[in-house]
Amino acid sequence: MGSRASTLLRDEEIEEIKKETGFSHSQITRLYSRFTSLDKGENGTLREDQVNFRGFMRTLAHFRPIEDNEKSKDQNGPEPLNSRSNKLHFAFRLYDLDKDDKISRDELLQVLRMMVGVNISDEQLGSIADRTIQEADQDGDSAISFTEFVKVLEKVDVEQKMSIRFLH
Fold first, then answer.
1. pTM for the whole thing?
2. Apex CA 30: angle with CA 24 and CA 33, to 5°?
3. CA dist., res. 47 & res. 117, Å (int)
4. Measuring CA to CA, which residue among 17, 11, 9 is closest to residue 64?
5. Which residues pair with 102 in a beta bridge?
6. Tens digits of residue pLDDT in 20-73
7. Residue-wise DSSP of 120-159
């Protein structure tokens, strides 16, 4: 299983992914093996939104624990994908469904529905969305900008909450 993964990934690709994501060679190889098992069409992508392995690794890199990154941080290189700033941008984009750089009530409702399904009534979800926007919206446009999103989360340990311990 591991040998199949390493034969399909070129060493140059592994090195590029290591630099981009901070994952080790063995972690990349194991994740590639898992990725290929999810790739039912055997076309190098995950079916639903055509995520290739590199995109898959970039997404997972946002959730790498921050302390793994501290050891080999390159001050001259790009900001790591698992930095606080990148994690906040990643989370914001999950809610900003139409990519207009703000989270509207409708977008918030759509995401809440995806998260809770039918366990909460539409009335309760509407109340949660309204209260969330009321608390976060500082400029009165009835939406949440990235700046407002960051402000709401300034006291939240995003680095810890958006970290998953895996492959150690």
1. 0.74
2. 140
3. 23
4. 17
5. 145
6. 888 889 989 988 988 888 877 777 777 666 778 888 888 888 888 766 444 455
7. S-HHHHHHHHHHHHHHH-SSSSSSEEHHHHHHHTTTS-HH
The residue behind tokens 């302390």 is: 67
Tell me the two tokens of residue 78.
């790009």
CB proximity list for 96: less than 8 A, separation 6 or greater: 102, 103, 107
Phi, psi of 102 (to 5 degrees): -155, 155
What string of DSSP letters covers 2-65? Answer: HHHHHHHS-HHHHHHHHHHH---HHHHHHHHHHHHHH-TTSSSEETTTTEEHHHHHHHHHTTS-
**Residues found in the chain:** 168
Write out the two tokens for 24: 């080790």
What tokens appear for 104 in the block? 């509207």
Residue with tokens 């990235």, as numbered in its chain: 146
Q: Give the up-direction half-sphere exposure of residue 43: CA atoms within 13 A in the CB hemisphere.
A: 8
